[in-house]
Amino acid sequence: QVQLVESGGGSVQAGGSLRLSCAASRYSSSTYCMAWFRQAPGKEREGVAAICKDDRTKYDDSVKGRFTISKDNAKNTLYLQMNSLKPEDTSMYYCAAAPAPPRWPLWKDEYNNWGQGTQVTVSS
Asked: Phi-psi bin for 13: left (phi > 0), alpha (psi -120 to 50), beta?
């Protein structure tokens, strides 16, 4: 299975920016969509943003206009540019890969390959 490794997390003040990266160990023709999820302690894992083979994107309403998902196919890397960060964005962030066109691109059960996560902490 393709390994996914996230990086770029850290601690920032509210209003700041971070860029997360998710490096895949190799290209996989079986990956249809990739996405970023986040999970805070005691909460469900929630979808943040997704991007698929046709470059269509999907964002959760809570991050629209602030976060941008992108991918570099040559580098097998997924990105999440996060601007205007808020304390409520504090979470562990995970990248994930879906093997088939998801019916709901931000639903975790559509994804079967996950990275280990990177922590994002936003202070007020």
From this structure: beta
